Structure formats: C-alpha cells, structure tokens
Amino acid sequence: MNIYVGNLAYGVTDADLRDAFSASGEVSSASVIKDKISGESKGFGFVEMPNNSQADAAIKALNEQPLKGRNMRVNEAKPREARPQRRGSY
C-alpha cells in the first residue's frame, strides 16, 4: 500500500520516515519529496508497505503523531491524477 505522509517537519529525512513506519511492519520504500531546484523538503512524503494490514496499522498508529516536532497527517495515498501537458516546453 502506498501511504501519504503530510505536515512533515522540514528536517525529516527518508530514514526518519522509514524508522517511524517500520515499527508497524515491513517498509519497502520511504521518501520525502524535495523541491527540484532548492533540494529542500516540500513537507510531505510517501511510504510503501507491501502488507496492507501492517500499512493500515501504521496509518492508525501514526496519524496525528509528532515526528520532529510536527504532527503528521497519514493516510492511504490517492492515485496521481493525470496532469495536462504544458505547451511551449520542448
């Protein structure tokens, strides 16, 4: 299951996310989304957990819990919507 994690403190790393979620089960990937230009965190990330029951347990356990001073918003990620293609960018 792909899990969205929002309201992250800007100092949270991929390893911090992996550590927080691995308490609930196996984590196949954890990544904080960063700005392409500055390299700074955008304040959200995604965690992939192969076992859905462990992922559900992680969502329940970690939603609204603090990580590095901010309460995370944790829920199942929604599929990415198709974005319109930009004109003029060749």
Distance between the termini: 35 Å
CATH topology grouping: Alpha-Beta Plaits
Mean pLDDT: 94
The total count of helices amounts to: 2
Shape-level CATH architecture? 2-Layer Sandwich
Which structural category fits the helices and strands? alpha+beta
Which strand order does the major sheet show? 2-3-1-6
What is the H/E order? EHEEHEEE
> Helix proportion of residues, in percent?
10-25%
Give the strand content: 25-35%
Shape call: globular
| Unreliable sequence segments | none
- Number of beta strands: 6
What does this structure look like?
By secondary structure, the chain is an alpha+beta fold. The protein has a single domain (2-76), classed as 2-Layer Sandwich (Alpha-Beta Plaits), CATH 3.30.70.330. 22% of the residues lie in helices and 30% in strands. It has 2 helices and 6 strands, in the order βαββαβββ. It has helices at residues 14-22, 52-62; strands at residues 2-6, 29-34, 41-48, 66-67, 70-71, 73-76. The chain has a 4-stranded antiparallel sheet with strand order 2-3-1-6, with helices on one face. β2 (29-34) and β3 form a beta hairpin. It is globular, with a radius of gyration of 14 Å. The N and C termini lie far apart (35 Å). 22% of the residues are buried. The mean pLDDT is 94.
